[in-house]
Write a structure and sequence with these properties.
Number of strands: 8
Structural class: alpha/beta
Strand order of the largest sheet: 7-6-3-2-1-8
Length: about 200
Amino acid sequence: RNKKFLNININNTAIIFGNGGSLKLLDFRGLPDHIKIGCTYSLLDKRFEGKNKLNYCIFSYPYGLFPVVWSVMQNNFVTNTIGKIHKKIINQNKDVIFFHSLTNYYSYFRKPKNLFFFHNINQKKELSHDLASDFNYNSSALEIMIGLAKYIGIKKIYLLGCDYLGDPIGYGHFYSAGKLNYDLRDEFHSGKVQKKY
């Protein structure tokens, strides 16, 4: 099923959205009309509506969509509240293409048409972004989004909200009420300084 996405956005530019707290101050009205790739809770943010709607969204959690999951902390099976939220996001955004770990394949009786899966078959050492075969860009949500961008043919990527790549490293999320460990007014996290990775 994923073969149809190969180079579907060839030579386009993409904006990849992390979940960092620096997104709290971002004015989405000024975003260019590029391919938009987000993750996890991005679509709970109302700023991702209208022309800023994501084209693609990934969930990185293995077994994250099942109604019951094993909790290491509680050493028991627990109700998967986060999985319910993820399924709701998928169902409410039928015009967004979602990718989730293949471990979630059997979490649906009838899979939504906009839900696709990535998987790692061969455990190769070299990175492979082949979504239709061995996809091992899967050590983090950011890496999955970059692998997806490469597969669909994106030529240039802008990273927003990837605060843990900053200097200083930023911890915290745009959707959390907790205090961030960095100042959103500093030059790096405000977007005044651009770094190439």
